[in-house]
Amino acid sequence: MGKFVVRGGRRLEGVLRVHGAKNAALPIMAASVLAASPVTLLGVPKLRDVDVMIEVLQSLGASVAWQDDALTIDPRGIHQYVIPQELMLKMRASIFVVGPLLARLGHAVAMQPGGCSIGDRPIDIHIYGFQQLGAKVSETDEGTRLDAEKLRPNTIHLSYPSVGATENLMMAASLIAGETRIRNAAMEPEIVDLAQFLEKMGAVVRGAGTPDIRILGREVLHGVTHTVIPDRIEAATFILATAATGGHLTLENCIVEHLPGLTGRLRELGVEIRVDDGDRVEVWAPERYRTVPVSLHTGPYPGFATDMQAQFMAFLLKVPGVHIISERVFENRLGHARELRRMGAQIVADQRVALIYGGRPLHAAEVRALDLRAGAALVIAGLMCDGETVIQDREVIERGYEDLDGRLRALGADIEKQ
Ligand code: EPZ
Predict the structure, then answer these.
(1) Are residues 26 and 173 in the same domain?
(2) Which H helix or E strand runs over 146?
């Protein structure tokens, strides 16, 4: 595995255009399985996870090709409903094709997918929802097999507002004639983007972005062209890197409304954030931060996003005071605290809660990216301190960040990949 080498102590300054959202692109790519004709997607980031989803779609029989920055998916050749195990294990998001396959072919095989080391990531809520739509579930040595002669519309109440389960069930319901209702649904912006894509294909989706989503499905959906929304977590990562290095950043293609819980806190701490017309956001960080204790917990949208928790923890090392972070979405997503301690950070943490003693000096060290967001947090910490920080397993970070080093260098950072 490769590494990033960061020589910190420099302010980030400049203009950054935010890429399309990985977590919008992956379910929408899976939703193309529902279409009876080709789909063209714009704004899809060129990431390892996107490459894996392309492999998954091709393994099912779809033809997928990049044409410059447009990704074209022709689902007409899809005939296979068992995803190769090695692909399922590579990326949890491969679970997103199960709903569309079940709706299109009447069969699908799901298995405990792979993914990051942040928790055991069960799929029980997905399976429960498919059963509510009439699927028969059986355990086989290939994995959990789902069969449904004909899916039927129904009202499904999710035990937890799971992003993936909401998306999977929205996609399956879009090919079922009649109204399906999802209660206690996830409300993330990526859900709304998927709903817009499904509507373009011919389904009727009401209430996306609220806990109560109604889908009026159709027997046939047609291929469309769609541009995915900007990546709010990428935007948050660069905003926090700027705040952590005393920098000044202008972001283009950034929807600040998608960052609830971040901009308000940063402003309280003295970061100046100005939103220009529509999608330009300007961020100025103060030279130094006042001593302010910060208490934060992650939660489903519009709560503080778990995907920016690690990056926020790294930033808090710059803010004098005692801070507390409670990770309430995943059961094991504070592993980066241990890696930050190698850099001198004063953090005590168990699996769910971390106490951060901010404003203390950090030093360069050799650290490891445990998951993509933890890795991004280590890059931020490396940017904050003098000396040469080496971050192992850079490929883990590149699952979710396109050309991270090139874009940071364009903002004045001294970072290279090896
Ligand atoms: C999506 O994962 C994102 N991934 C994650 O981003 C993100 O952290 C997560 O939503 C929460 O916002 C993609 O969109 C590709 P969940 P997902 O189902 O769908 C439990 C990143 O960094 N759960 O909302 O897997 C689960 O264990 C990635 O880009 C069940 O118990 O998230 C977790 O504790 C990481 N049973 C919680 O719910 C289920 O059937 C939230 O999971 C499903 C989930």
Answers:
(1) yes
(2) strand 143-147
pTM for the full predicted model? 0.97
pLDDT tens digits for range 328-347: 999 999 999 999 999 999 99
Residue 308 in tokens: 């920016």
Which of 401, 357, 354 is CA-nearest to residue 375? 401
116, 156, 308, 362: the active-site residue: 116
116 in active site: yes
Query: 334 is in which domain, residue-wise?
Result: 3-19+230-417
To test the pocket of ligand 1, the residue of 162, 298, 330, 402 to mutate (highest count of ligand atoms within 8 Å of its CB) is 162
Could you tell me the distance, in angstroms and rounded to a whole number, from the CA of residue 127 to the centre of ligand 1?
15
DSSP 359: T
Which atom of ligand 1 lies nearest, measured to the CA of 331? 34
Residues 342 and 288 in one domain: yes
Residues 296, 303: Cα–Cα separation, whole Å: 10
403: tokens are 């050309």
The answer for residues whose C-beta is within 8 angstroms of residue 350's C-beta and 6 or more apart is: 334
191, 206, 227: which is the final residue of a domain?
A: 227
The 13-17 sheet, strands edge to edge: 13-17, 248-252, 281-284, 272-275
Q: Whose CA is nearest to atom 22 of ligand 1?
A: 307
Query: 359-399: per-residue pLDDT in tens?
Result: 999 999 999 999 999 999 999 999 999 999 999 999 999 99
Tokens at residue 387, please?
């000396």
